């Protein structure tokens, strides 16, 4: 017994006419008869009394009708609500980001450019700012359609597609330091600076490994920790130290920060991630556009 059979039963209970039910349900009259017979065999009681001229509900059939009809109504309403939610989802695009100075400076420009070239009046874009681990959860739960991230952050996630946008360097980041003569810093040269690190709960795994390595090489290094990258940047701009982070973290066209690469083998990467299944058209369209146009915003 399935929902379609139940709908046939409810219709016949209301029409009490096999021919009319067959027309309304787009079935043959024999198909309606077979469905009702199969239901009666499964239920082990008769639903209708049939004569050559009339069809009537049995007492059991009447009780069954009054119980089943509300359930079918709830089912139909549930389907309509789910379809409406799916339509709304297709017309929404929720972008998750971790709040780097670069993202804060570039996202308004990027979204404005996207809407001008690709977007439409029915598309609604939302932004959500969370730490990396929360962004991963929100992507898996469907709360975010796409997130800005790094591959080492999502490396253990299944059914996630990553699109790389840029490869950079881990750098020593100075504020208003035009007198810096280095083109590159060795890890062993960092002992003379007060360093601003990101908290291990926030920073990507590759950066956390780098921070631990710096401390192991420079035993007496002075380190201050910030609970997110925006706080790290503000501390550097307040003269509280020099920052260790990837060059693509800095705000768009920020001339106040001088980034000098570290002599370090790991090259950080930055891109976007989305689920590898059930992705909406608006998500695919945005990801495709961004992968082709991202370098305009570097």
From TrEMBL:
<protein>
    <submittedName>
        <fullName>Transcriptional regulator (LysR family)</fullName>
    </submittedName>
</protein>
<keyword id="KW-0805">Transcription regulation</keyword>
<keyword id="KW-0804">Transcription</keyword>
<dbReference type="InterPro" id="IPR036388">
    <property type="entry name" value="WH-like_DNA-bd_sf"/>
</dbReference>
<dbReference type="InterPro" id="IPR000847">
    <property type="entry name" value="LysR_HTH_N"/>
</dbReference>
<dbReference type="GO" id="GO:0003700">
    <property type="term" value="F:DNA-binding transcription factor activity"/>
</dbReference>
<comment type="similarity">
    <text>Belongs to the LysR transcriptional regulatory family.</text>
</comment>
<dbReference type="InterPro" id="IPR036390">
    <property type="entry name" value="WH_DNA-bd_sf"/>
</dbReference>
<dbReference type="Pfam" id="PF00126">
    <property type="entry name" value="HTH_1"/>
</dbReference>
<keyword id="KW-0238">DNA-binding</keyword>
<feature type="domain" description="HTH lysR-type">
    <location>
        <begin position="1"/>
        <end position="58"/>
    </location>
</feature>
<dbReference type="GO" id="GO:0003677">
    <property type="term" value="F:DNA binding"/>
</dbReference>
């Amino acid at each position: 017994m399935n929902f379609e059979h139940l709908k046939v039963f409810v219709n016949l209970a209301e029409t009490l006419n096999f021919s009319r039910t067959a027309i309304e349900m787009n079935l043959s009259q024999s198909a309606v008869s077979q469905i009702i017979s199969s239901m009666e065999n499964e239920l082990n009681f008769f639903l209708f009394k049939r004569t050559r001229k009339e069809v009537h509900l049995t007492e059991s059939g009447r009780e069954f009708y009054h119980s089943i009809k509300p359930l079918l109504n709830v089912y139909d309403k549930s389907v309509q609500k789910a379809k409406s939610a799916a339509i709304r989802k297709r017309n929404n695009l929720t972008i998750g980001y971790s709040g780097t100075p670069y993202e804060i400076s570039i996202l308004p420009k990027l979204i404005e450019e996207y809407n001008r070239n690709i977007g439409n009046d029915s598309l609604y874009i939302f932004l959500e700012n969370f730490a990396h681990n929360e962004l991963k959860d929100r992507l898996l739960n469907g709360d975010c359609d796409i997130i800005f991230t790094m591959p080492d952050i999502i490396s253990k996630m299944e059914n996630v597609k990553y699109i790389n946008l840029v490869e950079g360097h881990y750098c020593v980041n100075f504020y208003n330091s035009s007198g810096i003569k280095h083109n590159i810093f060795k890890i062993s040269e960092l002992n003379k600076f007060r360093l601003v690190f990101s908290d291990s709960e926030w920073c990507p795994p590759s950066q956390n490994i780098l921070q631990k390595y710096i401390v192991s090489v420079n035993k007496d290094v002075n380190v201050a920790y910030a609970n997110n990258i925006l706080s790290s940047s503000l501390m550097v701009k307040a003269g509280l130290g020099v920052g260790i982070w990837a060059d693509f973290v800095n705000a768009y066209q920020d001339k106040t920060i001088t980034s000098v690469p570290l002599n370090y083998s790991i090259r950080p990467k930055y891109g976007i991630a989305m689920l590898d299944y059930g992705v909406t058209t608006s998500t695919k369209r945005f990801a495709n556009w961004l992968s082709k146009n991202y370098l305009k915003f570097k």
